[in-house]
Design brief:
2 helices; mainly beta; Methylamine Dehydrogenase, Chain H; 4-stranded antiparallel sheet
Length: 764
Amino acid sequence: MNTKNWKQVGPTARVDAHEYTAFPGMGRVNVVRKLGPTSYIAGTPQGGIWKTTDNGTNWLPKTDGIALLGISDIRVNPNDPMKMYAVTGDREKNTALSIGVIKSLDGGETWDTTSLVVKPELNKATSNLGVKPNNPNHMLAVVQQNVYFTTDAWSTYTKGANMQGGLDVLYLNDFILISDLFGRIFRSTDNGANFIEIYNNDEGEGNIALRFNSTLVGDDVYFLAGKKNGAILYKASIAQIMAATEANKLVGTKVGTTIPDYNPQGIYNVVLAINPLASNKIIVLGVDGYYSTDGAATWSKKMDAYNSKTSGETYVHPDHHFAEFMDDTTVLIGHDGGVSIVNVNTQPFRHTDITGNMIIGQIYHGAIYNSDMNNENFLLGLQDNDGFSKSPSTKSGNWVAVNAGDGTAAGINHRNPLIRFMGGTHGTLYTTTTAYLANYNDQTRVIASDENSAPFVCEVVIHDQNPDHVFAGHGELKYSKDAGLTFQNVGQELLVGPTDEVDQYADRIAVIGKNGQKLAKYDTLAGTFSNVTNIVRPAGISVNFNSICLASTSNTVIYASIPGLDSVNKVFKSTDNGLTWTNITFDLPNVIVRKVLNQVTGTATFEEIIYVATNVGVYGLIRETENSKKWIKVGKMFPNVTVYDLDINYTALKMYASTHGRGLWELDVNYSVNSTGINDNKISEDLFQVYPNPSTENQSIQIGLPEEVDEAKYTLFNYVGGNLKSGNLTKSDNVISMDGIVPGLYLLSFEVNKIKYCKKIVVQ
């Protein structure tokens, strides 16, 4: 199971805008540093560190082998550019775990840990990395709400004060400043050993974020207060900062005018850069970009993400996180779509996207078409970058942009791949019947957003046997009986609160929400739910599952996972539909499990592999028996990245991993399982003859056994590996009834002397 290589299947470059003004990019970049005339290095929130030496045409990942790939900041030693340091995690959100500070001694080609290695903790963000100008061996960062500082380039370190909400660091020769998400500034005059609060904007968490200019301007420190009602630039002299105390706090001097339509999107997009060669030239970034040439006396919106076609200004992907003047003319920018170079001396600004092939998409959910043999149909929902769709019917089969904002849910009808479902935030759901043939917005909204009750990320599930029935997470579960054209609410008996996890197989459906988790039977003929029962939590577990899998090998088996970092309670199995549970965590490392999925590999023997998507890749368990309690890292050449979603294409026997930071990946899972383990077993279609193939609905099929075979077992699987029927065949009794088998693609498996063979068959 661990001998095959994963393959990146795209998109490997920015997708076709498909007439979308605010077209998606590749993914968020937190920091980017220029290393030379054509060389740059960039850090991403979940996709690690990337480097280019040809102005962004080609980027290469440099930290795929290091676990937990979030990067908040990268700093290059000004005295020795071969030495670089990066703080892991994510300063913008606390979903990316930190392992401390890492270093490179060869110009960013290879990276390793420093002495500061921390145990990953949930819900604790990191800050930028501060470096002392006159002694770059002195550095400081806030990691998991604690100050860490060094005087020997992280050969050793000291743990300092707790700093909840630490966001930005400014390390000067005279002092260190740390800003936080509460509008406060803290000062240290002893290289980080002690801090006191010297400034408080007093607007409360979530209302303001303070970011420093990266260098002094004359004798002044400039800092930007990014507020919901505008951005205000302040400055304070070194003398004022040194004189400030906790009792007599610093009073910043307002610089220029407020930017009235500035949008920091809460506190996530607050960026300031002042031209070091001409301090009257200032760029301030939020969702859009603003520029002043008169020291902030007046501001102009120069980077217009949503109205550039009518405003005449420059389109740059919205939501900015980093900016630095490279010279008097150009600004280097990191944003939710990647990396840009902007020329500020032209009208409008001239924009060059240098993201190239930096594959850093943060996918929430992915969808495949299970009759594909050649990767022709995909749909992805991505954080910050809407949706990506691929169909042979649209733009010659190239990836195209889909309007969704933050793309969340994704689904493709398994009978008609032109019918697709794209989710937005808080339960918004769109459907297309053309695979976005016309343009990026060739879709209809079928479920509206509900910010008050629906989770930020919801899921859409298409019934595995009858795709006219569709289930969608929301404030409560919603379902459709007309292929997703209209949706209705479930009845009182199935209410579980804000619903973000749904799974369905055959007549079973499982729903997990904030207020409960339930199992029901669903009748596709009547479109009704029945036999609703509570899915009981395992003994000693106080939280609901975050992922659930209704096994296709048995109508009573369920697999489920527990959220968070609990070293002994991660994956569970029930053989009585969720009434009791057995812990099958076994030797699985202490990782975060995001998704659990089973793969059917045997013939009428309930043989299967259990997969879990984690924050460091995919693990597999060869069934759950006394002889097999070992989880194995699945595949090779896969980055240690968070995986949010898994799908298996049983037609091609490929597994697809939707990563939250490194795009979409594919793995050959053509395995056969026996009592001794897993072996490669390439499908042979030459020994058994099936006719007619294709057949029509309810038409029996006849099997031609090989001359040397007198008897064989058969099993008919649907496209998700479900065992539909099985029996024995002989040369005289060789007809299989297909009554009740709906049109679609199926696998017919034969077993002779414990050797398995498969045929793909089509029912029309």
